[in-house]
Amino acid sequence: MTPTALPGDRPFVLLATRAEDRPADEEYALFLRFTGLPPERLRRVRLERDPMPALDLEEISGVLVGGSPFNASDPLERKSPVQRRVEAEMAALVDEVVARDTPFLGACYGVGTLGTHLRAPIDGTFAEPISVVDVSLTPAGRDDPLAAGLPDTFPAFVGHKEAIRALPDHATLLASSPTCPVQMFRVGCNVYATQFHPELDVDGIVTRIHAYADYGYFAADELDVTLAAVRRAPVTAPSRMLRTFVERYAR
Q: By three-state DSSP, how is residue 81 classified?
Protein backbone atom coordinates (compact mmCIF):
# COMPACT_ATOMS: atom_id res chain seq x y z
CA MET A 1 0.00 0.00 0.00
CA THR A 2 1.46 3.35 -1.00
CA PRO A 3 1.91 6.08 1.62
CA THR A 4 -1.12 8.26 2.15
CA ALA A 5 -0.88 11.95 1.19
CA LEU A 6 -2.00 13.60 4.41
CA PRO A 7 -2.48 17.17 5.57
CA GLY A 8 -0.46 18.57 8.44
CA ASP A 9 2.55 17.08 10.14
CA ARG A 10 1.33 15.83 13.50
CA PRO A 11 2.08 12.14 14.04
CA PHE A 12 -0.19 9.36 15.15
CA VAL A 13 0.94 7.33 18.16
CA LEU A 14 0.78 3.52 18.29
CA LEU A 15 0.67 2.15 21.85
CA ALA A 16 1.99 -1.42 21.85
CA THR A 17 2.40 -3.99 24.62
CA ARG A 18 3.92 -7.08 22.99
CA ALA A 19 7.18 -8.21 24.63
CA GLU A 20 8.16 -10.58 21.82
CA ASP A 21 10.11 -8.67 19.16
CA ARG A 22 8.92 -10.52 16.06
CA PRO A 23 5.16 -10.09 16.57
CA ALA A 24 5.77 -6.59 17.95
CA ASP A 25 7.75 -5.54 14.89
CA GLU A 26 5.27 -7.19 12.52
CA GLU A 27 2.41 -5.39 14.27
CA TYR A 28 4.09 -2.03 13.69
CA ALA A 29 4.81 -2.93 10.06
CA LEU A 30 1.17 -3.91 9.52
CA PHE A 31 -0.10 -0.66 11.02
CA LEU A 32 2.26 1.23 8.69
CA ARG A 33 1.09 -0.80 5.70
CA PHE A 34 -2.64 -0.53 6.28
CA THR A 35 -2.71 3.09 7.43
CA GLY A 36 -0.41 4.13 4.59
CA LEU A 37 1.58 6.22 7.08
CA PRO A 38 5.33 6.73 6.70
CA PRO A 39 7.34 5.80 9.82
CA GLU A 40 7.85 9.44 10.77
CA ARG A 41 4.08 9.87 11.05
CA LEU A 42 3.50 6.78 13.23
CA ARG A 43 5.36 6.91 16.53
CA ARG A 44 5.51 3.53 18.26
CA VAL A 45 5.63 3.31 22.06
CA ARG A 46 6.37 -0.13 23.51
CA LEU A 47 4.67 0.12 26.87
CA GLU A 48 5.75 -3.34 28.00
CA ARG A 49 9.30 -2.00 27.93
CA ASP A 50 9.07 1.74 28.60
CA PRO A 51 6.80 3.97 30.70
CA MET A 52 4.11 5.96 28.94
CA PRO A 53 5.71 9.17 27.66
CA ALA A 54 4.07 12.51 28.23
CA LEU A 55 1.63 12.87 25.32
CA ASP A 56 0.29 16.29 24.42
CA LEU A 57 -2.95 15.34 22.67
CA GLU A 58 -2.96 18.71 20.91
CA GLU A 59 0.32 17.84 19.20
CA ILE A 60 -0.69 14.50 17.72
CA SER A 61 -3.30 13.46 15.15
CA GLY A 62 -4.62 10.46 17.07
CA VAL A 63 -3.91 7.34 19.09
CA LEU A 64 -3.85 3.73 17.89
CA VAL A 65 -3.69 0.76 20.27
CA GLY A 66 -2.54 -2.66 19.15
CA GLY A 67 -3.45 -6.05 20.56
CA SER A 68 -2.02 -7.41 23.79
CA PRO A 69 -1.44 -10.57 25.81
CA PHE A 70 -2.86 -8.64 28.79
CA ASN A 71 -6.44 -9.25 29.94
CA ALA A 72 -8.24 -6.51 31.81
CA SER A 73 -10.44 -9.05 33.60
CA ASP A 74 -7.58 -11.07 35.09
CA PRO A 75 -7.55 -11.10 38.90
CA LEU A 76 -5.20 -8.45 40.28
CA GLU A 77 -2.96 -11.05 41.92
CA ARG A 78 -2.32 -12.67 38.53
CA LYS A 79 -1.24 -9.42 36.87
CA SER A 80 2.47 -8.74 36.63
CA PRO A 81 3.94 -5.45 37.81
CA VAL A 82 4.36 -4.48 34.14
CA GLN A 83 0.70 -5.17 33.37
CA ARG A 84 -0.45 -3.19 36.39
CA ARG A 85 1.73 -0.25 35.36
CA VAL A 86 0.51 -0.37 31.75
CA GLU A 87 -3.11 -0.52 32.85
CA ALA A 88 -2.71 2.48 35.14
CA GLU A 89 -0.98 4.51 32.43
CA MET A 90 -3.53 3.53 29.80
CA ALA A 91 -6.40 4.36 32.13
CA ALA A 92 -5.08 7.87 32.71
CA LEU A 93 -4.62 8.42 28.98
CA VAL A 94 -8.04 7.02 28.04
CA ASP A 95 -9.69 9.27 30.63
CA GLU A 96 -8.13 12.27 28.86
CA VAL A 97 -8.85 10.91 25.37
CA VAL A 98 -12.55 10.44 26.13
CA ALA A 99 -12.85 13.80 27.88
CA ARG A 100 -11.36 15.56 24.86
CA ASP A 101 -12.90 13.23 22.26
CA THR A 102 -9.42 12.76 20.80
CA PRO A 103 -9.26 10.41 17.78
CA PHE A 104 -8.55 6.93 19.16
CA LEU A 105 -8.79 3.46 17.67
CA GLY A 106 -8.01 0.48 19.86
CA ALA A 107 -7.78 -2.97 18.26
CA CYS A 108 -8.73 -5.85 20.59
CA TYR A 109 -6.88 -4.51 23.67
CA GLY A 110 -8.69 -1.27 22.97
CA VAL A 111 -11.89 -3.01 24.09
CA GLY A 112 -10.28 -3.82 27.43
CA THR A 113 -8.89 -0.32 27.94
CA LEU A 114 -11.90 1.65 26.73
CA GLY A 115 -14.35 -0.84 28.24
CA THR A 116 -12.66 -0.47 31.62
CA HIS A 117 -13.05 3.32 31.38
CA LEU A 118 -16.77 2.81 30.68
CA ARG A 119 -17.05 0.40 33.63
CA ALA A 120 -18.55 -2.12 31.23
CA PRO A 121 -18.62 -5.77 32.40
CA ILE A 122 -15.63 -7.53 30.83
CA ASP A 123 -15.28 -11.29 31.23
CA GLY A 124 -14.95 -14.55 29.32
CA THR A 125 -18.63 -14.94 28.40
CA PHE A 126 -18.06 -13.98 24.76
CA ALA A 127 -14.45 -15.06 24.31
CA GLU A 128 -13.65 -16.27 20.78
CA PRO A 129 -10.95 -18.73 19.72
CA ILE A 130 -8.39 -17.59 17.19
CA SER A 131 -10.30 -17.77 13.93
CA VAL A 132 -12.12 -15.85 11.24
CA VAL A 133 -15.67 -14.77 12.11
CA ASP A 134 -18.34 -12.89 10.21
CA VAL A 135 -18.81 -9.39 11.65
CA SER A 136 -21.97 -7.42 10.84
CA LEU A 137 -22.41 -3.67 11.05
CA THR A 138 -25.35 -2.34 13.03
CA PRO A 139 -27.50 0.45 11.53
CA ALA A 140 -25.33 2.94 13.45
CA GLY A 141 -22.23 1.21 12.09
CA ARG A 142 -23.43 1.50 8.51
CA ASP A 143 -23.81 5.25 9.06
CA ASP A 144 -20.46 5.70 10.82
CA PRO A 145 -17.72 7.40 8.78
CA LEU A 146 -15.05 4.97 10.00
CA ALA A 147 -16.94 2.08 8.39
CA ALA A 148 -17.22 3.82 5.02
CA GLY A 149 -16.63 1.30 2.23
CA LEU A 150 -17.11 -1.76 4.43
CA PRO A 151 -19.73 -4.34 3.43
CA ASP A 152 -22.61 -4.87 5.83
CA THR A 153 -21.04 -8.22 6.83
CA PHE A 154 -17.36 -9.05 6.46
CA PRO A 155 -14.90 -11.70 7.71
CA ALA A 156 -12.41 -10.57 10.37
CA PHE A 157 -9.66 -12.09 12.50
CA VAL A 158 -10.43 -12.62 16.19
CA GLY A 159 -8.85 -14.36 19.14
CA HIS A 160 -9.55 -13.15 22.67
CA LYS A 161 -10.14 -14.53 26.16
CA GLU A 162 -12.42 -11.69 27.28
CA ALA A 163 -14.97 -9.32 25.80
CA ILE A 164 -17.54 -6.74 26.83
CA ARG A 165 -20.66 -8.56 27.99
CA ALA A 166 -22.98 -5.55 27.81
CA LEU A 167 -22.27 -2.11 26.36
CA PRO A 168 -23.36 0.92 28.43
CA ASP A 169 -26.06 3.13 26.97
CA HIS A 170 -23.70 6.07 26.43
CA ALA A 171 -21.59 4.05 23.97
CA THR A 172 -22.72 3.31 20.41
CA LEU A 173 -22.61 -0.28 19.16
CA LEU A 174 -21.25 -0.38 15.60
CA ALA A 175 -20.68 -4.07 14.85
CA SER A 176 -21.42 -7.54 16.24
CA SER A 177 -20.75 -11.19 15.46
CA PRO A 178 -22.83 -14.28 16.25
CA THR A 179 -20.44 -15.30 19.03
CA CYS A 180 -19.51 -11.84 20.38
CA PRO A 181 -22.18 -9.11 20.51
CA VAL A 182 -19.73 -6.21 20.97
CA GLN A 183 -17.27 -6.29 18.07
CA MET A 184 -16.96 -2.54 17.55
CA PHE A 185 -18.22 0.54 19.35
CA ARG A 186 -17.76 4.28 19.59
CA VAL A 187 -17.72 6.74 22.48
CA GLY A 188 -18.44 10.36 21.65
CA CYS A 189 -17.66 11.16 18.01
CA ASN A 190 -14.03 10.07 17.63
CA VAL A 191 -13.13 7.32 20.13
CA TYR A 192 -13.38 3.75 18.77
CA ALA A 193 -12.57 0.20 19.79
CA THR A 194 -12.78 -3.07 17.89
CA GLN A 195 -12.72 -6.59 19.29
CA PHE A 196 -11.57 -7.92 15.92
CA HIS A 197 -8.14 -7.10 14.49
CA PRO A 198 -8.23 -4.63 11.57
CA GLU A 199 -4.42 -4.53 11.53
CA LEU A 200 -3.86 -8.20 10.66
CA ASP A 201 -3.34 -10.21 7.51
CA VAL A 202 -3.05 -13.99 7.44
CA ASP A 203 0.76 -13.95 7.73
CA GLY A 204 0.55 -11.65 10.74
CA ILE A 205 -1.94 -13.82 12.59
CA VAL A 206 0.08 -16.96 11.81
CA THR A 207 3.10 -15.29 13.44
CA ARG A 208 1.01 -14.58 16.54
CA ILE A 209 -0.37 -18.12 16.66
CA HIS A 210 3.16 -19.48 16.89
CA ALA A 211 4.40 -16.74 19.24
CA TYR A 212 1.55 -17.21 21.72
CA ALA A 213 1.08 -20.98 21.43
CA ASP A 214 1.67 -21.38 25.17
CA TYR A 215 -0.59 -18.51 26.29
CA GLY A 216 -3.79 -20.55 26.57
CA TYR A 217 -5.56 -19.40 23.39
CA PHE A 218 -5.75 -23.01 22.21
CA ALA A 219 -4.77 -26.46 23.46
CA ALA A 220 -1.37 -27.95 22.71
CA ASP A 221 -2.87 -30.36 20.15
CA GLU A 222 -4.91 -27.65 18.37
CA LEU A 223 -2.13 -25.82 16.52
CA ASP A 224 -3.01 -27.22 13.08
CA VAL A 225 -6.73 -26.68 13.64
CA THR A 226 -6.08 -23.07 14.65
CA LEU A 227 -3.87 -22.42 11.63
CA ALA A 228 -6.61 -23.82 9.40
CA ALA A 229 -9.26 -21.68 11.13
CA VAL A 230 -7.56 -18.40 10.17
CA ARG A 231 -7.56 -19.50 6.53
CA ARG A 232 -11.31 -20.21 6.52
CA ALA A 233 -12.03 -17.15 4.38
CA PRO A 234 -10.02 -14.27 2.89
CA VAL A 235 -9.88 -11.26 5.23
CA THR A 236 -9.42 -7.94 3.45
CA ALA A 237 -12.16 -5.50 4.49
CA PRO A 238 -11.28 -4.60 8.13
CA SER A 239 -7.91 -3.05 7.28
CA ARG A 240 -9.71 -0.31 5.30
CA MET A 241 -10.72 1.18 8.63
CA LEU A 242 -7.11 2.06 9.43
CA ARG A 243 -6.65 3.98 6.20
CA THR A 244 -9.98 5.73 6.77
CA PHE A 245 -8.98 6.62 10.33
CA VAL A 246 -5.75 8.37 9.36
CA GLU A 247 -7.29 10.11 6.34
CA ARG A 248 -10.11 11.40 8.53
CA TYR A 249 -8.02 12.60 11.44
CA ALA A 250 -4.58 13.61 10.13
CA ARG A 251 -3.81 17.22 10.92
A: helix
